[in-house]
Amino acid sequence: MRKFLIAFSFFLIQGISAQELFVVTDPASNVPAGSLGIRLGQSIFKEQMKSGYSYHLMPEVTWGINKNLMVRTSMFVSNRSNQLVTEGASFYTKYRFLSTDDLHSHFRMAAFGRYSFNNADIHQEQIEIIGHNTGFETGIVATQLIKKVAISASVSFEKAFDNKPDYRFPTTQSDNATNYTVSLGRLMYPKKYTNFKQTNINTMLEFVGQTLNENGKSYLDIVPSIQFIVNSQARIDVAYRQELYSSMLRSAPNGFYLNLEYNFFNVSK
């Protein structure tokens, strides 16, 4: 009975916010308090300056401390050295400071921060502390849910440091940037809930951009995706990222994501 109540509670949460679980951006909503999420993120992108593909494996663990605060740790593994090598890790936290609820809608705002360290070579002008650069990022995100549609937007400041021990950040490149995202999501199935074991199908469209603050170079990508939430606990994301515009050097801007996630609820009280 206790397991049923836990699962049913998550089913109610998913019924109003499943389409907020974006693939490459994070909404203002947090994971449920006391929950533990395990994610295996994977990406394979086509190299621009050489033949072949860049593969990244990113295991993550997310913990909901309470309804307003969550933390996450990630590990970065890639094949850049022609073999799978652990290159670094990341620590992320998000605090929800505003929450308003209506009958069929809600609005959330949150502040977030991330620090990453990485020992790989620095091979592009784009700053990306999720898997490439040592550095930090801090920003705010706002998410509006209206019935089955979610709209989320964020802006952040990102700063890169040397990738120790061997790679200094190039003095000819901008070491800080402004990031901006806009994400749209819609719950496509089921049309009507009958039990918590129903599979949710969400479609999403995300726009991800960056401007280097010291020279004005920028890029803008589009990321369409489809998402499946199974038995109210397991999540599968499939997405494709395509560069729309870029004036900066990027080593591998286009490719696919496959994320696998499982959530454990009521782990801590």
UniProtKB/TrEMBL annotation:
Signal peptide positions on this chain: 1-18
Q: Which UniProt keywords apply?
A: Signal
Name the chain's protein: DUF2490 domain-containing protein
Source organism of this protein record = Flavobacterium algoritolerans
